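Escalated from tier 1: S-adenosyl-L-homocysteine holo job.
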Amino acid sequence: ADSQEMARAMARQVVRVAAGQEKADIIFINTCTVRQHAEDRAFSFVGTLKDWKMRDPNRLLIISGCAAERTKDELRRRFPYVDLVMGAKSIEKFPEIIAEALKEKFSWAKENEGMWEKEEKTNRAASAFVTTMRGCNYTCAYCIVPFVRGREVYRPLDTILEEVRERLIEGAKEIVLLGQTVNSYHHANGQSCNFADLLKAVGGIAGVERLRFMSPHPHYIDDKLIEAMAATPAVCEHIHLPIQSGSNRILSLMRRNYTRELYAGIAQRLRSAIPGISITTDIIVGFPSETEAEFEETLNFIQEISFDGAYCFKFSPRDATEAANHEGQLPQSLKEERLSRLLALTDNLGRAKAKSQIGRKVKVLWETHGEGRTRNNWIVRPLEPAQISPGFTNQVTIEAVKNRLLLGRLSLE
Ligand code: SAH
Ligand code: SF4
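Tier 2 regenerated the structure:
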């Protein structure tokens, strides 16, 4: 979402997407620092750009985002050819920063036919992210987000609704509301508004066919929110609700502020209020001091809840976080072993869940020319070549599966 927001700010400055690296005057890299792996990948890419930059020093190389926020000085030292390092906390100021940088560097606008990618690629996404808040007030022991993004700041309701309307005008059919604990949203602007109110307000805008949100925190899921989800037709029958671990001792060490029992209760209430809802989650294995028995609690919790999908991660110690300094750091080999056992379980479960969709008639909103999504978040491809257009919805009968992918036939009605 941040990348898209910065791309829009650049587009207002007559910057267009170039047809490949060699034709580009600017390379802009937005980075993530949640896990070390993400940061390493971004920085090794910056390393490969040295030649590109040296061949024409008039080129502009920009690095932004959370890894840039975390390692500003190190970045400048390691890659002195980078022109601009902009941390995640400065994203609101990006329009001015980029305008200034462009003015300093370039004497265009030089319109050059054949330089640009087709517009279609950058715009007109069927599904659009809309940021509702920045930062996070939690202090999960493993997490670097609060350090690089600061405390929660909520965008005013009017601003959010206005942005939703802009995305609809550009062609979006689905809106995904984003925040680190998206359901802690509250805003007082004359009248108070919490996340349930926000969902209803966005869901009430004509043209919002589908509404999703990410990531809710279990602590802020109450009956009012479940009711709002059930009562707002645009809200999709899917929730991505990170659990992180199935062990109460680990959850408490993580400072997650809920237990597995509380989570199980929420899952049950969601399923009875919203029939057919998919529940997906995030899991971290190998948190410091996690025992074999505690890891197995995570495995059996996954079966107990019968998740529809899970993003699974090895614990990555992040500088300055509490968990990085915990005793009992587990060896890499053990984390890898647990991750592969977890993946084997979630893959099997995912495949079985996918198979259970066979025979169903579902509405698919196409996101590309080859692929779309059901309301409960399964990815669907047409079984035989079909005329499908991003942004359009078709009735599809699911006839086969390929791992977690559903394959279906378009109905002609
Ligand atoms: N705010 C969201 C999570 C954002 S980070 C929430 O609280 O649910 C996305 C996911 O990355 C987390 O859910 C977690 O599973 C994973 N993650 C975060 N920090 C991590 C770390 N240090 N090591 C491994 N995985 C991590
Ligand atoms: Fe990180 Fe926890 Fe905040 Fe999510 S809620 S961003 S995991 S500190």
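Residues 136, 138, 140, 143, 145-146, 180-181, 217 surround iron/sulfur cluster (ligand 2) (CB under 6 Å).
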